[in-house]
Amino acid sequence: MNWLALDTATSRASVAVGSSATDAVEESLDGARQHARALLPMVTRVLERRGITLAALDGVIVADGPGSFTGLRVAAAFAKALLDTRPLPLRTAPSLLARAAAAASPEEMVMTAADALRGEHYAAVYRFPPGRIETVMAPRVVRTADLEALASSLGARVAGDAPPRAAWLLELLGRGGGTTEVRNVQSWEPVYGRPAEAQAKWEREHGRALPDPAGATG
After folding, report:
1. Residues 143 and 38 in one domain
2. Which of 101, 134, 148, 149 suits 49 as a labelling partner, its CA being 20 to 30 A distant?
3. Percent of the chain with pLDDT over 70
4. Domain extent at residue 129
């Protein structure tokens, strides 16, 4: 099988094609400002290295946040454009879950976190019984200073801050609790985790919520 995996939730854009992390062809690029222009060429290159075309894809899996507002929208827009022309299944999973699955031992409870700026992190906790995944704490914004205490209170190990890899998303396919099927692709939006910086600035300056902000509901 050949699934296209996209993870642009952080300042690293990562693209992979394959059926698992071990057999995937993968490419990554650091620099959040490069995501929009770089994603299509990256996808083209990994398909070429895999020796296939878009017509041979079996599905698309996207890291749906939380994370960078701009980065997440880049991958979402790409996936929507692709699936508007090809009726492929779309599945999503938190980038934090993919990182946790790559770092965890069987039965272990693991916390993963990603920098959310402003003295905060996006954090989540997962447990990995054989054949399935349990979400102990869904992704949320946590004060950076509180991460260790929160993990300790839940009995979770804090995983190292490894950069995300799209190939790790492939390992979630077929595991109970690992991915979510998107049925209405065009209305789907990533889980941003909190408002974009521009929206937050507008609301601070005006003292009220921005009317109908794009992607507010995630």
Report:
1. no
2. 101
3. 89
4. 96-158
Degrees to nearest 5, angle at CA 146 with 99 and 63: 25
Cis-peptide, bond into residue 66, ω within 30° of zero = yes
Which CATH number do you get for residue 105? 3.30.420.200
The whole-number pLDDT of residue 30 equals: 92
What CA–CA distance (Å, rounded) separates 26 from 7?
11
DSSP letter for 176, please: B
Contact 143, 120 (CB under 8 A): yes
Of 30-34, 111-115, 145-149, 193-197, where does mean pLDDT reach its minimum? 193-197
Examine the domain organization and report whether 80 and 118 are in the same domain. no
CA distance linking residue 32 with residue 124, whole number of Å: 22
Beta strands in 31-168 (DSSP E): 59-63, 90-93, 109-117, 120-127, 134-143, 157-158
Q: Which residue matches tokens 């031992």?
A: 105
Cβ neighbors of 204 (< 8 A, separation 6 or more) are none
In this predicted structure, the answer to whether residue 195 has a pLDDT above a threshold of 60 is: no
